[in-house]
Amino acid sequence: MNDHEAILTVRSLKTHFFTADGVVKAVDGVSFAVGKRQTFALVGESGCGKSVTALSVMRLVPHPPGKIVAGEITLLGTNLLELSEKEMRAVRGGQAAMIFQEPMTSLNPVFTIGNQIVEAITLHQNLSARTAKARAIEMLSQVGIPDPAQRYKEYPHQLSGGMRQRAMIAMALSCDPELLIADEPTTALDVTIQAQILELLKRIQVRRGLSILLITHDLAVVAETADVVAVMYASKLVELADVERLFTNPVHPYTQGLFRSLPRLGERKTRLETIPGSVPSPLAFPPGCKFHPRCPVGCELQRCRTAEPELREIAPKHYAACWECPGYADAPPADPAAEPIAYRRGADGR
Amino acid sequence: MAAEADNALVVVRDLRTYFTVRSRLFKKLYVRAVDGVSFAIRAGQTLALVGESGSGKTTVGRTILRLIPATSGQVLFDGQDLFSLPPAAMRPLRRQMQIIFQDPFGSLNPRLTVEGIIAEPLKVHRICRTRRQRRQRVAELLQRVGLEPAHARRYPHEFSGGQRQRIGIARALASQPKFIVCDEPVSALDVSIQAQILNLLKDLQEEFELTYLFIAHNLAVVEHFADRVAVMYLGRIVEMADRDELYANPMHPYTESLFSAVPVPDPTRRPQRSRLEGETPSPINPPAGCPFHPRCPLARMAVAGQLAYQRGGQPRPPLPAHETCRVAIGGEPVRLPRKCVEQVPELLPMPDRPDHLHACHLRR
Ligand SMILES: Nc1ncnc2c1ncn2[C@@H]1O[C@H](COP(=O)(O)OP(=O)(O)OP(=O)(O)O)[C@@H](O)[C@H]1O
Ligand SMILES: Nc1ncnc2c1ncn2[C@@H]1O[C@H](COP(=O)(O)OP(=O)(O)O)[C@@H](O)[C@H]1O
Ligand code: SF4
Ligand code: SF4
Ligand SMILES: [Mg+2]
Ligand SMILES: [Mg+2]
Question: What local confidence, expressed as pLDDT, does residue B269 receive?
Fold first, then answer.
């Protein structure tokens, strides 16, 4: 298999919300490519546009007020933005599936777990009721749900948070997708259950050759699971590299700040370092580099305050959008959607 | 009791909080949310309460503050027995004990201005009598938590999560408390904001000599913040020690499992996971014996003879058959140490380390 083959490319995506208070530019020019069988993590703070990016790929942005106003989203060679709604529905239950932070948003409380998985299966495959049921129970057991035949008959509220998340994964996988979009799949769970779910996703990925677009705000989860990482701030990507490079050599002051403010096991400081201020509201983004009011490097620099830096390839396969980072001045503008960053961890996770 | 300390501001003894729920057959059932918890917090220090969701952490905090009635047990605050005080004597103590909530969105009244929210305790406890004094005090408090006096006239929805948490902290500080229950104060916040709030809480602790009960599930945050740590499982404390000791020498297998589940923010280091299987059982019908036995890796290792009682020591031979028994866990037959299944392990100090307590038969 070619390591440079992309399953998904997102190019110059702009998704805006037209609200009474003004235009919220939730995603404003985002480009990246996800390689086949890769885990691509999109990381950033609350409100930076991660979920809207994911919803855009699935074409599930609520409309009105939201609209994809520009860009191109290509899944396995098909530009999704040109498909009819009917064709898109086939994609959603076929090549691509999505799971959410709160499983209850996608599980229907009035139907049993089994019912819902059977429905997902039969939507795209012509199976007898009996085969579909057997398949659903098999799915539940594959995601590690004990006593699957019993759980099949239960309603979502009868399951714990971790079990619901497993059931949702089973549902997402039941139509055998090639791309799984996971939006904060473990954020609502305890660390012990989080570890179980992350391991489950990893196992399924290896077994099925799945590509995963993982959305999270947790850098530790990124470190444990991702091959390639994109850091998002205020509706744009600010840094993009393979996981090893990004963690050992972050160049954007925002990425560096995130790492510094992270409390780590085994490190005891009297004070944590912080990023001053807070994430700006998308209705009042600052001019110039959107990070400049919080940036220890550029807050006083004229260029940072007036001109917004674009993403450039500052070193081979390492992209950043910061006037002051090393290598930026000499680098040409980059197209990170041109091909995926070919990086994959070994089976042991390294 | 070994769990208690000299100059403790808060002493909790054998606290139990049960909730009544009804089953389908109208039978009364008890949720044993807190089931015999004892600890002490020294004045000016932080005790962290950690454990999975549903382990009873919030209920402990709220029961101490008498926001939830206790089923039994005792809480001493500055030497006074809170549960036997008449309401009139409780009132002056109330102002000395405050709480900061996890959810900075749900915990502020949306119809009040920031000034209204922070001035409420000032009114209730008759701290500032005139409106002008209250204004003045609210402005001071806002400044102290890193907001601006001009924010006083705005409403909670106009603030970000971190700013709302600062408002919640200002409200808690308003009555000049000695003791604050911080119930997951940063769990809902972004990393860059978490660090700001943790630093603020630390500064305030030093400045006002505050004592904290710090409820959290992030062990890295706790390591940074706490003086002493108690680990809860199914309504009980299973291990408690000073921070350095607990992080260096966790004794209870549940504590070990918690540590090993923490994801490490370093892609080049891949820790060997001892993954904890299964989920916390229901506190309505908790397992007999050691509440952790259905999930405990140590108990299984002891039967198989893989267990080194002292970490790093030699494995011991498998337990003799008469010290084990067969039980069904999740439908599967498993052989476990008889003690683990039949006897509730008490939280006891270690012989050579009286400040380190744990509740595991096999690690004795
Ligand atoms: N339906 C909507 N109407 C108006 N604005 C919206 C809508 N959905 C999202 N937004 C705005 O778009 C921006 C990006 O939101 P998004 O949900 O993608 O953030 P996120 O990065 O996923 O954050 P979180 O970590 O909190 O989930 C935010 O400013 C948000 O308020
Ligand atoms: N008002 C209540 N009625 C019934 N059960 C409750 C109530 N409050 C909490 N519980 C139960 O008590 C247990 C402990 O809850 P809690 O103290 O909130 O745990 P934690 O804060 O550790 O997550 C849980 O099983 C929870 O469902
Ligand atoms: S461009 Fe300037 S303000 Fe923006 S991150 Fe770089 S140094 Fe900071
Ligand atoms: S008493 Fe037994 S079951 Fe409980 S923690 Fe110790 S070894 Fe495990
Ligand atoms: Mg989101
Ligand atoms: Mg709680």
Answer: 77
Ligand 1 pocket residue status of A26, Cβ below 6 Å: yes
**Test the B interface: residue of A187, A198, A278 with most B CBs within 10 Å:** A278
Distance B262 CA to ligand 2 centre (A): 23
Buried/exposed code over A217-239 (b: 16+ C-beta within 10 A; e: otherwise)? bbbbbbbbbbbbbbbbbbbbbbb
Tokens 């260029």 locate to A303
Selection from A71-75, A124-128, B195-199 with the highest mean pLDDT: A71-75
CATH class, domain B1-96+177-264+273-282, is alpha beta
Pull the structure tokens for residue A337.
């959607």
pLDDT greater than 90 at residue B280: no
Find chain B residues with C-beta within 8 A of A248's C-beta. Answer: 268
Nearest CA to ligand 2 atom 18: B58
pLDDT exceeding 70 applies to what percent of chain B?
95
Query: Do residue A262 and residue B53 have CB atoms under 8 angstroms apart?
Result: no
**Model pLDDT, residue A127:** 86
CA separation (Å) from B319 to B299, B335, B343, B364?
10, 11, 17, 15
Q: What pLDDT sits at residue B24? A: 67
Identify the pLDDT of residue A215.
Answer: 96
Q: Which chain B residues are Cβ-neighbours of A350 within 8 angstroms?
A: 268, 270
Q: Determine how β-strand B97-100 pairs with β-strand B179-183.
A: parallel
- Closest atom of ligand 4 to B302 CA is 7
- Contact between chains at A271 and B202 (C-beta distance less than 8 A): yes
Single-letter residue type at B9: L
CB B243 within 8 A of CB B223: yes
Name the average pLDDT for chain A.
91
What ipTM describes this predicted complex? 0.85
Q: Where are the domains of chain B?
A: 1-96+177-264+273-282, 110-172
Average pLDDT over residues A181-192: 89
Residues of A whose CB is below 8 A from B215: none
A and B: number of Cβ contacts within 8 A: 135
Q: Is B282 on the interface with A (CB under 8 A)?
A: no
pLDDT digits (tens, 9 = 90+) for A211-254: 999 999 999 999 999 999 999 999 999 999 999 999 999 999 99
